[in-house]
Write a structure and sequence with these properties.
This protein is of the alpha+beta class and 556 residues long. It contains 11 helices and 31 strands.
Length: 556
Amino acid sequence: MAKRSKEAVLDLNYRRKNRRKTIRSGIQLAILLAVLLLIGNAVFHVQQYQEPHKSSWTSNGGFIALSYFGVDRTGTAALIAKKQLEKQLKALYDQGYVTISQQDIIDYYTQGALLPEKALFLAFEDGRNDSSLYAQPLLERYNDKATFLSYANNLVDSDRKFVKPDEMMKMMKSGYWELGSNGYRLTYINIHEKDGAFIGMLDENKLPDKSKLSDYNHYLMDFLRDADGIPVEDREEMETRIAADYSAMREVYSDKLGYMPKVYMIMHANALHKSMNRLVDHANASAIKKLFAIHFNREGNACNSADGNLYDLTRIQPQPYWQTNHMLMKVQKDCSQIMSFIVGDEERANDWTSLSGVAEFVDNRIALTSPAGGAGIYALENSSGYRDVSLQTELAGDEMGTQGVYLRYNPAQASFLRASIADNKLVIEQKKPEGEAESLFSAPLKEDQVEHHLTIRTLKVRVQGERLSAWVDNQEWAKDIKVDGSIADGEIAIFSAASTLNEKDDIYDGVFDNFEVTSLSSGDLLYSNTLTGIEGALHRLQEAYNRILDWAIDTF
């Protein structure tokens, strides 16, 4: 074969570089166009809200209220993913929930006006641009009306993360949005760090990581205090300071919007009329009644009944790590309304039997939501004779709670082996026939894998004969633990339960990804929900696309 000339080699390399540059430029252009299309669709393609036929409303049974802190394209520790928000709004829409306006609430409590049989008040807090961008298409799809809340000072500062007054007025014109307020500013007072250092007062954007703080309060919640907790202002000074904050709020909204919003959600909830100092309480309550017609003062209960109070309403704030069934289970508990839970992939769901709780099957994930105050348990079909097996799964639920697996689970004898991660501890238990559950092993796990409330762990359990071993994140934690010989065989099951340390929420989502069971005697794969082949490739491609698009949105 003739050797290529130096010029030919250089020419070939040049063409290859040009080809790579062209491909790279094409990919970047495609990403940019996708981002522009996403933004353009949200900005220019705005439908008009269709007012419901209120003559058909017949209920005096109250309403539920949901308030989201914010929305992100794929979700963060604080912001719900657009896809998850869509699933939650769709689940409520499919069950007949109809959104109501601020005036509907006022008329309900002051004039005895009726509401839809299933009434929903929907809100988005903090005034973020991304909440408006990602929620707008969903409001259009389900013809939902929502209240968009802001901090007044963000209407006049230069931070483009927050929606500005002219944009708010455009949102209002579509009919899908009403405006509300979280207050004048998000500022913290009486701040102490865990090392004992006293900071005093800082705005949210200057506050250090809150996990490093031992104590702090919101600006309107208390007297200003020194490092020893002693007030540094008297009653008159405190009242003047708080009144000035409400006055500044009124001036900004009146100047920039031309009016005061009717709805207020104080930061933080559940203090006014409860744990707040009596004098501070009075200073807030009197100002709120002068400025607002509605106050969602409490958080943690979805239900507002006919005997409620316009200035003491309550809502729930669905967390980003909540599964859709978690939100539905919470509404069912709070309001005693029978909910229809979502299943997802019914073909995959048919591999399991529900013993308690509800599960959603999506791609390679099983999300098992516990009933309020109880444990969620799903048993694997046709696994009743399983004895010597190796089981592996990734656990992606919140770190505060219990998610785990049963091996040799025999309901008839009430016996089992159980391995779980509970409040970030590995726990292995056994229960002999008719006996009590007993711990065989317990050890706290390292915190370095924990990110934003979510534990991303790989749990592997191997049981053979009367010996059990367990690994977490490929590290062997329990080796050849002796198990009782009377626990001979049984089913495979998954379970989830809320943490006793979490006083706010007794519902929990155990999240099981890539769940696999292998026979140790034959080496056969007995069950797997891992995506393989084309399905797996497409799933990985979608994940890669999401990462690239998120990068593009942040970059451009």
